Each structure stands twice: as C-alpha cells, then as structure tokens.
C-alpha cells in the first residue's frame, strides 16, 4: 500500500529490495535495485550493494563493474576496492585447480607454466586495488596481509618483508 501511494519513494523501494534479499530472491533484489539506480544514479552505496549481490550470484565481472562505478562516485570507498581485489583473486582457485589436475608430461608441464603465468597476472591485476586501500588506510591489516602474500608469490620478497614488518608493528 505504501509503495502504491508513493511509487517513487526510494526508501520504500530499498526496503522492498531488502525484503527480497533477506528471502533469498537475489534476482528480484537486483531488479528493484536497478530501478532505484535509475532514480538515484549518483549513489555509490547502491552500486556497491549491487556489486555484493552480483558477486553472491556468481557474476564476478558484473560485481567488479558495479564496484568500479561506486569508486567513480566515491573514490574513498575502501570496501569496494577490497571487494574488487577479492573478485579478481577468486579467479585463482580455478587456475590452481587446473594446475593440480595436470600430470608430468611435457605438454602438461608447458600448460602448468602457462597457468602459472596466468596466476601471476591475476595477482598483478589485484595488487593496485590493494595498494590503494593501504595508501588510504595504512592500518588495514587485511589489505596489507593479502598484498604481502601476493608479493611473496611474485618473488618480490623485499616488498613482502616490508609489509610483514608493518603487520608486526600494527599488531603490537
């Protein structure tokens, strides 16, 4: 009834969307949120929330796109950067699974090396987002730890060691 009386009320639409989300109907949630975006397209939180939903629905690329839009509107949105990095790093699991399924043949060794390079590419794609989080929030241990692990994987031990020292200092 409230929605019928006030069809353009964004607060009511958000409440409706949240009810669908709580009930597990993420497709309906997304539909309503996109309707809200058409009325309030400059709200970074809406894009961020759509990113979370897209990621939960298994659409990592859409999630990253929504997070990037949120960052365009609010460059200080740390959680959006962290979630972009997480979505990018999620690609690693599939690569590792492929690597683990290979044998010892020459062709498998070649494929392993290709996958290892692809994995490094995933790390390098995620790092700028993590580095920006650290620049904006130098005490963000989650971003520091993840970056440190990536640097170790990339063989950039000096950078990793510096981040380890930073974590040690923060945890005192």
Chain-wise SSE layout:
Blueprint: H1 2-5, H2 10-22, H3 26-39, H4 44-56, H5 60-73, H6 78-89, H7 91-100, H8 106-136, H9 141-153, H10 157-170
Helix pairs in contact: 2-3, 3-4, 4-5, 4-6, 5-6, 6-8, 7-8, 8-9, 9-10
Describe this structure in words.
By secondary structure, the protein is mostly helical. The protein has helices at 2-5, 10-22, 26-39, 44-56, 60-73, 78-89, 91-100, 106-136, 141-153, 157-170.
Q: What is the H/E string?
A: HHHHHHHHHH
Gyration radius, in Å: 20 Å
Number of helices: 10
Helical proportion, percent range: over 70%
Q: Mean pLDDT, rounded to whole units?
A: 91
- Biggest pleated-sheet summary: none
Percent of residues in beta strands: under 5%
> What sort of overall outline do the alpha carbons produce when their principal axes are compared?
globular
- For the termini, the CA-CA separation is 55 Å
Number of strands: 0
| Unreliable spans | none
Q: Structural class of the secondary elements?
A: mainly alpha
Oligomer: single chain
List keywords for this structure.
172 residues; mainly alpha; 10 helices; globular
Short description:
This protein has 172 residues and is mainly alpha-helical. It is 80% helix and 0% strand.
